[in-house]
TrEMBL record:
Pfam family, one: DegT_DnrJ_EryC1
Coiled-coil segments on the chain, per record: none
Name of this chain's protein: DegT/DnrJ/EryC1/StrS family aminotransferase
The keyword Secreted belongs to this UniProt entry's keyword annotation: no
Similarity remark: Belongs to the DegT/DnrJ/EryC1 family.
Keyword Aminoacyl-tRNA synthetase: no
Entry's EC annotation: 2.6.1.-
Organism: Congregibacter variabilis
Keyword annotations from UniProtKB, A to Z: Aminotransferase, Pyridoxal phosphate, Transferase
Length: 366
């Protein structure tokens, strides 16, 4: 008998009978991309939902990150975290920027502001933090450091859709914030992403950059890229927004069931779920302590044997990959907290539609 396979995440797909009329509208209009009606509607709807004034949609989050750095004309060195998905630092290399890795905080696994200040040199031009698992970085402290040293801040907010901190939308922090709408994210457009812009002029510049630098039919003002979101992606996003509040509520319930059940298991520490103001429960990371009878990797293999495909997220560290490990900042003694987390963290399945019986199976195996 084939064992059921439970992955760490599963994309939400709206009912097909709701998607079909939108596809028919796209076909009838003959506009498949280049800022069509669906694209414009989704930008407006997302601005309203997220509580931001300006937003530029992208084909995916990685191109959005590359473009955000280009838009701010960032060069030299950028201080960032090794505890993230490789797109974070790859976006720096694509802009011929040198990533400088610093350690993370043990409780949030976000970039450590105290480590940031120690890593600043005359070549430092910006900070690229990540709101890891949707938990806000120390935004006020990072902003103060950036202001003191005249640095730009670009937030990789791939995990932080809809998250609110002490002052409203988390996405308002930094010079720019970048979202991912990949199929595995809380909100998805199949593939996709966005840059949150502080003003109309910045949005206009970014919109030009994502469309080859075109201003009009015959005028190109910059060496842009093709980063446009197409109409089918946008249509998927419009439907997702209809369900997002219910989906987040379901994620919250799953998160609570895990926390209640695992609170009595010695050797398992569940990380914080996010800010009290508004979390999105994007992931459920647990840290495997020495008192647990298995190592993290042994537990990962044990769960996999039973059809539970959890994820060692993030492992290996970015600083361990060949294109990064030769840098001085990638040394393991420079990143002790990050290395410890990478060897102990495992993310359990959490997604709308994860049944209580499947969740009970996961807990019983743990």
């Amino acid at each position: 008998m084939t064992r059921k396979k439970i992955n760490v995440t599963k994309p939400f797909l709206p009912p097909l009978d709701e998607f079909t009329p939108l596809l028919e509208q796209i076909w009838s209009s003959g506009i498949l991309t280049n800022g069509g009606p669906m694209h414009q509607q989704l930008e407006e709807a997302l601005c309203e939902h997220l509580g931001v004034k300006y937003l530029s949609l992208f084909a995916n989050g990685t191109i959005a990150l590359v473009t955000a750095l280009k838009a701010l004309r960032i060069t030299g060195e950028v201080i960032t975290t090794p505890y993230s998905f490789v797109a974070t630092s790859h976006s720096l290399l694509w802009n011929d920027i040198e990533p400088v890795f610093v350690d993370i905080e043990p409780d949030t696994l976000n970039i450590d502001p105290n480590s940031i200040e120690r890593a600043i040199t005359s070549r430092t031009s910006a900070i690229l933090p990540v709101h890891c698992y949707g938990n806000p970085c120390a935004v006020d402290q990072i902003e103060e450091i950036a202001s003191n040293y005249n640095l730009k801040v670009v937030y990789d907010a791939a995990h932080a859709f809809g998250v609110e901190c002490h002052c409203g939308s988390l996405l308002k922090h930094g010079d720019l914030s970048v979202l991912s709408f990949h199929a595995t994210k809380v909100f998805n457009t199949l593939e996709g992403g966005a840059i949150i812009c502080p003003d109309a002029n910045t949005k206009r510049h970014i919109d030009n950059l994502k469309n080859f630098g075109f201003v009009d039919e015959t005028t190109i003002v910059a060496a842009g890229i093709n980063g446009k979101m197409n109409e089918i992606q946008a249509a998927m996003g419009l439907l997702q927004l209809n369900y997002i509040d219910d989906l987040l509520l379901e994620r919250k319930k799953i998160d609570k069931r895990y926390r209640d059940a695992l609170s009595v298991v010695d050797g398992i520490h569940a990380l914080p779920s996010g800010p009290q103001e508004k979390a999105n429960y994007a992931y459920f990371p647990i840290l495997i302590e020495d008192s647990y009878p298995l190592t993290r990797d042994q537990l990962y293999a044990y769960l996999k044997e039973h059809g539970i495909y959890a994820r060692r997220y993030f492992y290996p560290l970015i600083s361990e990959f060949p294109m990064y490990r030769s840098g001085n900042s990638a040394r393991s003694d420079n990143l002790p907290v990050a290395h410890n987390a990478a060897s102990r963290i495992i993310c359990l399945p959490i997604y709308p539609g994860l049944s209580e019986s499947d969740q009970s199976l996961i807990v019983s195996l743990l």
